[in-house]
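User: tokens in, sequence out, please.
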């Protein structure tokens, strides 16, 4: 038997109606029942589209014109929006973005986890959903022989030169301006990933929203010439700078930061605050990029943990101890587990800075450490997990099930892997009580969630 032929053909134009938004913020509609994905289109819009790719079960189209416009469509604030891969939703009103993200979580639970009637609260948004990022990572390269700092186009490594990014802290835009000046003045070779040559690969900036401390990291493919001149340009243009760092990434890889770095000037860290807690942030460890929403996220995690002061808590993927220290003030004891040694060093220091002595931090994989703690007679009443986008390792989920805590708090940045992991946990004696989406990344298709689970 031959597979049914798709009702659309590549390079042909069609009229269609958009019904929904996909997981990456693209419009989704159907032509004769056949799914077509169209970037830049919104639900309810009638559009003219050119089909650019056809697979067995769906197609991709290029938006040519809008015949009937959605009332939720707004003018993007950023002039690079159509070309840059950083944001996906600037053309959608902020109210529409929050509705989309709430639905994104519900859809993942239904389609991936096969859940019904899970309580998903409306996504919590921001009063001012711009200039919220405290960290930026700008790739550096050449476009037709000219210097470019910016972001990659969607699904590619084609560099888009970006002068100002409206979701970054203003200081971050100033840093890129100064580094451009340094590279051009001293003709510093920039990295070409095709031939693995050139010196400067990325410019990474961290900003403390509360402390106003600034760290500038220059990622290099080998030694950096004119270090003194770089320090002079940054300090003169940005007197508030706290730390200037060179990071070595000499591997042929998409991983931005290497494991080795040196301090060119100033401190080896910056300090920032979430709520009334202070945190030391070194060049390498993970730290949430939206400090305003992070406070909301962590307070919700604390609410779901429902601590009385008698509980033992395990915080898997604890990073530099941010959630752990929020929990420690309400718990009897907190064990934070993290595989990155420098993150654990920072977590220990952060506990000291905040005068918290009932948090213990352990370097290692959570799926290995938790069984070891159990052998020592340590049982968690509450387990908190905040994994990367790939979700939890199945061995970790099994280790948590074996310890059988009364409650679990799952913090997730990926609804798909969240739904997958919740499905696993419900098969081993847990129920999903409630999910609270939090918009940590306005103007993008990403959403963070806090989930409360309890043992049946």
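Assistant: Sequence out:
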């Amino acid at each position: 038997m031959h597979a049914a032929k798709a009702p659309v053909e590549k390079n042909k134009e069609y009229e269609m109606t958009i019904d929904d938004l996909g997981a990456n913020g693209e419009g989704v509609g159907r032509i004769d029942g056949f799914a077509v994905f169209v970037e830049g289109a919104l639900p309810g819009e009638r559009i003219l589209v050119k089909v650019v790719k056809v697979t067995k079960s769906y197609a991709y189209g290029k938006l040519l014109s809008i015949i009937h416009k959605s009332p939720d469509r707004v003018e993007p604030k950023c002039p690079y929006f159509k070309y840059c891969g950083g944001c996906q939703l600037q053309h959608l009103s902020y109210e529409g973005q929050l509705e989309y993200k709430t639905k994104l979580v519900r859809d993942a639970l239904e389609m991936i986890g096969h859940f019904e009637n899970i309580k998903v609260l409306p996504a919590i948004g921001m009063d001012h959903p711009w200039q919220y990022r405290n960290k930026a990572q700008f790739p550096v390269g050449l476009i037709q022989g000219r210097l470019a700092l910016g972001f990659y186009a969607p699904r590619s490594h084609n560099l888009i030169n970006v002068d100002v990014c409206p979701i970054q802290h203003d200081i971050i835009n100033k840093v890129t301006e100064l580094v451009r000046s340094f590279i051009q003045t001293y003709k510093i070779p920039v990295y070409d990933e095709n031939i693995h040559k050139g010196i400067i690969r990325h410019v990474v900036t961290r900003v403390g929203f509360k402390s106003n401390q600034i760290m500038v990291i220059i990622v290099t493919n080998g030694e950096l010439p004119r270090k003194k001149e770089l320090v002079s340009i940054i300090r003169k243009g940005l007197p508030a700078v706290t730390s200037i760092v060179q990071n070595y990434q000499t591997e042929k890889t998409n991983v931005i930061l290497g494991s080795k770095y040196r301090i060119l000037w100033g401190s080896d860290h910056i300090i920032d605050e979430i709520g009334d807690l202070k945190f030391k942030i070194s060049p390498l460890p993970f730290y949430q990029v939206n400090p305003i929403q992070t406070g909301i996220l962590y307070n919700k995690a604390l609410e779901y943990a429902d601590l009385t002061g008698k509980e033992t808590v395990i915080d898997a993927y604890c990073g530099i101890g941010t959630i752990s220290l929020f929990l420690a003030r309400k718990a009897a004891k907190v064990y934070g587990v993290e595989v990155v040694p420098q993150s654990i060093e920072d977590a220990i220091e952060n506990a000291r800075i905040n005068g918290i002595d009932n948090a213990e931090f352990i370097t290692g994989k959570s799926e290995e450490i938790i069984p070891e703690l159990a052998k020592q007679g340590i049982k968690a009443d509450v387990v908190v997990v905040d994994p990367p986008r790939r979700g939890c390792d199945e061995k970790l989920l099994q280790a948590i099930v074996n310890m059988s805590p009364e409650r679990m708090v799952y913090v997730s940045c990926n609804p798909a892997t969240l739904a997958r992991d919740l499905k696993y946990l419900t098969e081993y004696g847990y129920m999903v009580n409630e999910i609270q989406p939090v918009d940590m990344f306005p103007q993008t298709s990403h959403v963070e969630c806090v989930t409360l689970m309890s043992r049946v």
